[in-house]
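Researcher: Let's try something more involved. This one mixes different molecule types, so please make sure each is placed in the same coordinate frame as the others.
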Amino acid sequence: MSFEKLDALCRRLNALEHATSILHADEATNMAVGGGEARAEAMSVLAGMYHRQATAPEIGDWLAAAENEDLSEDQQTALREFRRVWTGLTCLPPEFVERQTATRMRCEQLWRDLRAKNDWAGFQPALEGVVELAREEAALRADAFGLAPYDALMEQYDPGNRAADITPVFAELKVFLVDFVPKALDTQEKRLAARPKKPLSGNYPVERQRELGLAMMAAVGFDLTHGSLSVSHHPFCGGVPTDVRITTRYRTSEFLSSLMGTLHETGHALYEQGLPREWAHWPLGKARGMAMHESQSLFVEKQIGRNPAFWRWALPVVERHLGEDWSIEDILPHVHHVERGLIRVDADEVTYPLHVILRYELEQDLIAGRLEVRDLPEAWNAKMTEYLGLSTIDDPANGPMQDVHWPSGAIGYFPSYTLGALIAAQQWAVIARDMPDIDAQMEQGHFDALNDWRREHIWSQGSRWSTPELIERATGEPLNAVHFRNHLEARYGG
Amino acid sequence: MSFEKLDALCRRLNALEHATSILHADEATNMAVGGGEARAEAMSVLAGMYHRQATAPEIGDWLAAAENEDLSEDQQTALREFRRVWTGLTCLPPEFVERQTATRMRCEQLWRDLRAKNDWAGFQPALEGVVELAREEAALRADAFGLAPYDALMEQYDPGNRAADITPVFAELKVFLVDFVPKALDTQEKRLAARPKKPLSGNYPVERQRELGLAMMAAVGFDLTHGSLSVSHHPFCGGVPTDVRITTRYRTSEFLSSLMGTLHETGHALYEQGLPREWAHWPLGKARGMAMHESQSLFVEKQIGRNPAFWRWALPVVERHLGEDWSIEDILPHVHHVERGLIRVDADEVTYPLHVILRYELEQDLIAGRLEVRDLPEAWNAKMTEYLGLSTIDDPANGPMQDVHWPSGAIGYFPSYTLGALIAAQQWAVIARDMPDIDAQMEQGHFDALNDWRREHIWSQGSRWSTPELIERATGEPLNAVHFRNHLEARYGG
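Model: All components are placed in one shared frame. Result:
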């Protein structure tokens, strides 16, 4: 049976994915400093081995034959998702991939150097090369999938996402936020005038913060028999579903940034730990995509982790570990802090979407050829001024040079961040509607019902549905900004 | 060029070795408890991938063609060693390997269960199956390499080692030790009567022991930019030459067992760190074999780490970390303790070789068909009585069931342990002859000259020579027991 040949192939590919995932986590947490060169060589050879096996010429024949075999519904779904992934892997000619990899690597290396020097002029030609190839790539992918070029790029990260569906939602959200951000800042100012912010600083040994993080992870549902927490410079969630590696970093003067980061990564980890085991080696058994993944991390970090009800339970836990007796009025100004800034990764949940929408609009223009790289600093500055009232015209390092995404060729990825925030709010709204006591549960430190809902509706579904289908099946509505808006108004409104 | 095809193949195989080595180390030190099943599946698939690529039918043609190409001397040496490894991988038919793997795994699993129950009768049939297949394997390997059957088994672990060379050395050593062990015990008794042993017990926090271990590792030459120390249940040296992972375990009531274990693994690690980088992906760039590897671990643990001159430097280091002010007379009775016992892994350097020689003699008889498994308990007991004056006739769990080697099919491996001890003493003797101030250097904590000698004569040689050639080139003499005997007499004699 051809299906069985594909099953055996998936086992081989999954073993290579297992190895590279653990090697990645190991590199960030355990590798000796001098081990990098040999590790990079091994990873590059393994990536080549994976690509050769995943695109072997016989696979097309196996797929065609398997599609005519007598299969269960699950097997048919597995095949469908396999074909989608395989098309994505095979639609670019090898010589194109080589050229693109070299161009991206050169641009990313240049970016690391020139961003620090705020040197847009030196960087621009390299980014032009990457964008030129991204346009070619978009055309090739569009052809293979029968999609519009930018949609074909998004398809890599969130299968089923289409600009025609997202643009109206983002447009409405943008109008709302341009108006709402000043209001939220105003509200915050009044609150702080009434009750000045108390600094949450002190001396918190790493080991105590680690114990606090582990206690919180376990409480919100992280299975410590199938994962662990360690330290790395850039926090991440990696590893494999049976052994999810999350990391954080500590500052001994304050605990919130590490704890919030740990909760964020725990959200990613819960998704991985909840994936369907029986299809673990097929694409069907993997997480749906970046937007849905981000919805799970933001669900834990923002919907749970910055919720006053959560903090009514969490403050005594913090006190047990750190010995600090803070009140809910002490903590909320910190976890609900809003601030206009130039940098996306430093943004709070109110201003963040404007950073993403700016990039979403610009990268569509770049791919469509309506915008050229040389005009990017001005276009960026115009939107930054319009959306957030800030200027970057003399500061490209904190404008179009601030993210690694474009230099490394990731175009079509940015929307996932804000889609994740919308989807998380949409999930929360359904849960709050169906479980009116959810705040009371959190105040008691009970997260089972929250997790059961997500396990049933999201995690266990793997890649069974496209992103929009999964959103609608889980929440009963297509993607929309209503619940996220309500969420912001309730938390940050006057 | 066929040589270049083989070079590319070696890069692929080395990437898989890199991955599986790091995954092995990760499994023992970092894996979540629930991650084992998926890890085992991934490792088994990667092992299959390695074997298929390492034995692909075209390799024989590439080898034959490459051997006729215009190559440098190094390239020719690399090819020669590649052919040896490749012959070892291809000389067993795949169906035989499958049958053997299943038989060994069943026997090893049974052994774990039945050893705890001291149930020889239940275990015997499984071991008979393993020995039967080992005889077949020996015949197949003998045929492929043109060697005697037992030599063909040893060839897997120590290329070039032949029973005809080893047996006379072991025979001489056995006669010496049967006489010497009682003398050493007598000497020890007299010393202890004159000065009773002071217990080195206390409360030594793990973190302080770890710092002590790292300080000792660094002092004797471990490059901490290319390796690390962590904790595992069974100490090991793993990883890759650019990132050597060694492990230990701690008891807070005493420090010597962990420290001595760390020095032992450091000896292995120095060999790996000192291998020639330019051939790292070829068999030529790997360590020579088990005996030579053990010679490096025993060199650091026994020749350096139990040397009074070493302790004159080390005691103040121990005091700095653990706060204990011991004298050289306090420490030596502990690091030079001799005791007759049934268990090989617990044996000291005086009695250990008798455990090995017993196994070496018995496993040759098993392979030759002069001894059957059913007669093993009696044969074991007879030798145990003759060599060490101990009986195991009612205690097979501590007799022929004590080691994992035979149940897992590793026959021909045991001699490596004692060959390692002889080679270490032989190396030490040359160094002591050529550097008369070596004790004074150690007393100052200077190990550079010791390491330079081993780097030049052993580590940098990789697999350029057979084991006996490497011994003779490094020390100017063929393998012999003279220096080891002198070493024991100097340290343990009256």
